[in-house]
From TrEMBL:
This is Two component regulator with propeller domain. It holds the Pfam family Reg_prop. It comes from Leeuwenhoekiella polynyae. InterPro entries: Reg_prop, WD40/YVTN_repeat-like_dom_sf.
Length: 483
């Protein structure tokens, strides 16, 4: 146990309303062997061992404990044998989780008492609020109240101050449960199909919007699965895209869904190699790519294949993004490096003199001139991540406003290049929306404080056939107002 005079354990209940999700909090850990589990369920709840506090502290960095202040919310997966594993966390202290050794502190604790339902042990996640203050640790257990939920949204306070309202050139319209048939305000998916219909994925179903009218697909009228804790709720839709045949693809939980405008097809572990998916990308040849912590799954319409460290020079199976360019080169980003698979060789970038040495590819786009646009992620040093362009002449450009730390603290959720207006839109996590007028080199930051952008979490952007920008946020949908 640590030599500090730390710790008094006070275990209390903190009742909260929260949407179901495998990872509840922004810091995600992939070491847990993910399989289906429920949120703090069981006739008998999972419980920590009696010496949990001393065990937990002994695995942390002692120097960090000397100065830590603030709170950390942790989501702990406890399997049927009582093994604990850190699944996600929200760190609001003055010490980074990695330096604190938070993962070791949770995952190396002794055996828990697993959740029990009808006499059988089951996997469940438990959330604890850890409050570090004045040399003491206060621990509260979060209890999830699903019965009283009718909606869920997250507005939040932006990490970065937005532009002055007088400097903003655009305004937004918000679409939510209060003014539409939207089944849930917390939304993560937005894309436009070939008939100019808009599709949105929410934490309670899929929405099709055509000529301003909404049609909702949920667990009652489609193949979408209900949540395990409430059969009247539909599982969160976390990703979506449209293919070249205008089939709509979505994923949530352990299922991938294909909708051909009449029928739904479900792909799961029984009829495919899909597992817990992170992103979906579909190339111009209609190949569907799904990223995960186990590599890339590819579906060509008939057969499934897996791209991982066993059959390529992939630096890691923890894949962050994929893209196929006009030269049919497959770019794959992982959290340990990036590669490019050409027709006859593989290019590795870990030793290259380019931004690809420092950041993981999460999203890419190729413009009409052949320039490649990258969103790169670096968890350890966010200043090395952000937006980059690889020009056709082979030169790299970093896209950042001058004398600003806008991209040094926060990750990019999505970006959209509007080539017609020569504008770049960036959804910056925990901030809102960034507009970059490329021709005039002008940056604008839209937040919940200076605009009608309703949440600091803007997840995905799309442009419809009329040129209007739309977005999915954690507090409803947004639509760029017409000029």
């Amino acid at each position: 146990m640590t030599k500090m005079k730390y710790i008094i354990l006070t275990l209390g209940l903190l009742v909260v309303n929260f949407a179901f999700g495998q990872h509840l909090y922004p810091e995600k850990y992939d070491e847990c062997k993910l399989s289906k589990f429920c949120l703090d369920c069981g006739d008998t709840k999972a419980e920590p061992p009696q010496d949990f506090v001393s065990d937990f502290l002994s695995n942390l960095n002692e120097k960090s404990l000397m100065k830590i202040k603030g709170s950390i919310t942790v989501q702990i997966l406890v399997d049927s044998t009582g093994k604990a594993c850190l699944l996600s966390a929200k760190n609001e202290t003055n010490v980074k989780s990695k330096k604190l050794k938070l993962h070791d502190g949770i995952s190396n604790t002794k055996t828990w008492s697993p959740a029990i339902t009808k006499g059988k042990a089951e996997q469940a996640s438990v959330s604890l609020l850890l409050i570090f203050q004045d040399g003491q640790l206060l621990i509260k257990r979060k209890e999830f109240d699903f019965k009283n939920q009718s909606n869920m949204k997250s507005v939040g306070t932006p990490d970065v101050k937005g532009s002055k309202e007088s400097q903003l050139s655009e305004s937004w319209t918000v679409i939510n449960q209060q003014n539409s048939k939207l089944p849930w305000d917390m939304s993560r998916v937005a894309f436009t199909d070939s008939t100019n219909s808009l599709w949105f994925g929410t934490d309670n179903g899929v929405v099709k919007m055509e000529n301003g009218k909404m049609e909702v697909f949920d667990s009652k009228n489609s193949a979408l699965k209900p949540t395990s804790y409430n059969k009247n709720r539909t599982s969160s839709i976390r990703g979506g895209a449209v293919d070249q045949l205008n089939n709509k693809w979505f994923f949530g939980g352990y299922e991938v869904y294909k909708y051909d405008n009449k029928n739904w097809t479900v792909f799961d572990s029984l009829n495919s190699p899909v597992s817990w998916m992170r992103k979906i990308y579909i190339d111009k040849k209609n190949n569907v790519f799904l990223t995960s912590s186990k590599g890339v799954v590819k579906y060509d319409g008939n057969d499934w294949t897996i791209i991982d460290t066993s059959n390529t020079k992939l630096p890691s199976n923890k894949v962050s993004g994929v893209f196929v360019d006009s030269k049919e080169r497959l770019w794959i980003g992982t959290y340990d490096g990036n590669i490019r698979m050409d027709s006859d060789n593989i290019v590795e970038y870990n030793n290259s003199e380019s931004p690809l040495k420092e950041g993981a590819i999460t999203d890419m786009y190729e413009d009409k001139k052949g320039n490649l646009w990258f969103d790169l992620y670096n968890n350890d040093d966010k200043s090395k991540g952000g937006m980059f362009v690889l020009r056709t002449n082979g030169k790299w450009e970093s896209l950042k406003p001058k004398k600003s730390d806008l991209f040094t603290k926060n990750d990019i959720n999505d970006f959209l290049l509007d080539e017609d207006k020569n504008e770049l839109w960036i959804a910056l996590n925990s901030v809102g929306l960034i507009k970059y007028d490329i021709g005039n080199d002008k940056w604008e930051t839209y937040t919940t404080e200076n605009s009608k952008v309703p949440s600091i979490h803007v997840m995905q952007l799309t442009k419809d056939g009329d040129g209007t920008i739309w977005g999915a946020t954690f507090a409803g949908l947004i639509k760029l107002k017409a000029e």
